[in-house]
Amino acid sequence: MCDMSLSYWDLKRIKAFFDFFSLMTSLKSSSSHSSNSRSPSLNTKSTTNTFLYNSSLPALSITNKPSNGASLYHTCRSVLEKLSLVPNIEYYIDYTTDDDTTPSNKLWTICRRRFPLTALFNASDPQEPLSVDPSCTQINECKKSIYHFIVACKNQLGIREDDLFTLSDLYKDNTNRFVKVVSAIDIILQILEE
After folding, report:
1. DSSP letter assigned to residue 31
2. What is the per-residue pLDDT for 170?
3. Is 82 left (phi over 0), alpha (psi -120 to 50) or beta?
4. Pick from 95, 160, 88: which is nearest to 124 by CA?
5. What is the chain's percent helix, strand, coil content, to nearest 5?
6. How many CB atoms neighbour CB 60 within 10 A?
7. pTM (2 decimals)?
8. Which biological process terms from the Gene Ontology are attached to this UniProt entry (predicted)?
9. Could you say which DSSP state residue 101 is in?
10. CA-CA distance, 12 to 7, in Å (whole number)?
11. DSSP for 41-81?
12. What is the radius of gyration, based on Cα positions, of the chain?
């Protein structure tokens, strides 16, 4: 049976599409009514042209600025593709649960497991590789290993503290904070590519 669950953002996109479609349909029908008139006035403007050309664009501000990159969905998908090339991480990328339906959920789950981050760090061939017991599943042990990962990225890979994430960024259910985690992993992947 096919899983047809949609996220909040999927539903927002669908609603926006239908709103746009109904707007365009109403504009088309209003322009077709004006073209059926027997004596069009030369001094009238089409409502379609007025709407499309005279609508003002929102001004750029701190809260309304253009996106500086891809969506979280596409960024996570790209990071997952790059991670699949890192030794010892394939198993974690292939292993999925019911919650891992989107690239962001899948990446979030992978990062919280601690061993993939350790494997990612060790793939950079550091002077002092991180060790981890993959059989340990206690949350505090995972957090401890991830903390050591963050410190090692700062000290051994030279990644700025501003470019790294905190344990709260990873373990809180907040996508705004998870963006920082994804960004840090992408930086490490870029170091590996060099």
Report:
1. H
2. 93
3. alpha
4. 88
5. 60, 0, 40
6. 9
7. 0.61
8. establishment of cell polarity; septin ring organization
9. -
10. 9
11. -TT---HHHHHHHHPPPPPP-SSS----S--HHHHHHHHHH
12. 25
* 19 vs 189, residue with greater confidence: 189
User: What DSSP state is assigned to residue 143?
Assistant: H
44: its two tokens: 């009238």
Residue 180: pLDDT band (50, 70, 90) is very high
Contact 103, 71 (CB under 8 A): no
Instruction: Check residue 172 and report its DSSP letter.
Output: S
Which pLDDT belongs to residue 94? 76
Read off the pLDDT of residues 52-109 as tens digits, 9 standing for 90 and up: 334 344 444 444 444 456 788 999 999 999 998 988 888 777 776 666 678 888 899 8
Evaluate whether 126 touches 159 at the Cβ level (below 8 Å): no
Does the pLDDT at position 146 exceed 60? yes
Sign of CA dihedral 17, 20, 23, 28: negative
CATH architecture group of domain 72-193: Orthogonal Bundle (1.10)
* The two structure tokens encoding residue 184: 């840090």
CA 7 – CA 164 distance, rounded (Å): 28
Q: At residue 47, what is the residue type?
A: T
- Average pLDDT on 20-44 reads 49
- What is the pLDDT averaged over residues 42-53? 42
Give the pLDDT of residue 6: 57
Amino acid at 187: I
Question: 54 Cβ partners below 8 Å, 6+ apart?
Answer: none
